[in-house]
């Protein structure tokens, strides 16, 4: 198995660890930006790295749904009734 993590020289040259990590879109494990396969689940990532943790993305989706519902209810109450 190949070492998919950048060396300390790479981190010094290209930025700190926070700039280099993302999350696997399949299992949610933290992975490096340029990794081809997830070290946890083995799925091929190939550039599909998530920039936010899966829990944050789920929260964002639910928040957007809630805002949409509230806007529709307000619209209905103001303009229909």
Using brief descriptors, characterize the structure shown.
elongated; mainly alpha; 81 residues; two-stranded antiparallel sheet; single chain
Briefly characterize the structure.
The protein has 2 domains: 1-50, no CATH class; 53-81. Helices cover 46% and strands 7% of the residues.
What does this structure look like?
It is built from 3 helices and 2 strands; from the N terminus they run H-H-E-E-H. It is mainly alpha-helical and 81 residues long. It has a two-stranded antiparallel ribbon. A hairpin with a 6-residue loop joins strand 1 (21-23) and strand 2. The longest helix has 26 residues, at 54-79. It is elongated, with a radius of gyration of 19 Å. It starts with 7 loop residues before the first helix and ends with a helix. 7% of the residues are buried.
Question: How are the SSEs ordered, and which strands pair?
Answer:
Blueprint: H1 8-14, H2 17-20, E1 21-23, E2 30-32, H3 54-79
Antiparallel strand pairs: 1-2
Shape: elongated
Helix content: 40-55%
Termini separation comes to: 65 Å
Proportion of strand residues: 5-15%
Structural class of the secondary elements?
mainly alpha
Cross-sheet strand order for the largest sheet: 1-2
* SSE sequence, one letter per element: HHEEH
Mean pLDDT: 80
Domain count: 2
The helix count comes to 3
- How would you sum up the major sheet? 2 strands, antiparallel
The parts where pLDDT drops under 50 for at least 5 residues are: none
- Radius of gyration, Cα only, in angstroms? 19 Å
């Amino acid at each position: 198995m190949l070492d998919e993590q950048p060396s300390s020289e790479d981190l010094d040259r290209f930025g700190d660890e926070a700039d280099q990590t993302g999350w696997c879109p399949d299992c949610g494990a933290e992975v490096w930006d340029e990794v081809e396969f997830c070290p946890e689940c083995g799925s091929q990532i190939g550039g599909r790295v998530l920039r936010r943790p899966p829990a944050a993305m789920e929260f964002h989706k639910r928040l957007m749904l809630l805002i949409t519902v509230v806007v529709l209810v307000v619209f209905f109450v103001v303009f229909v009734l």
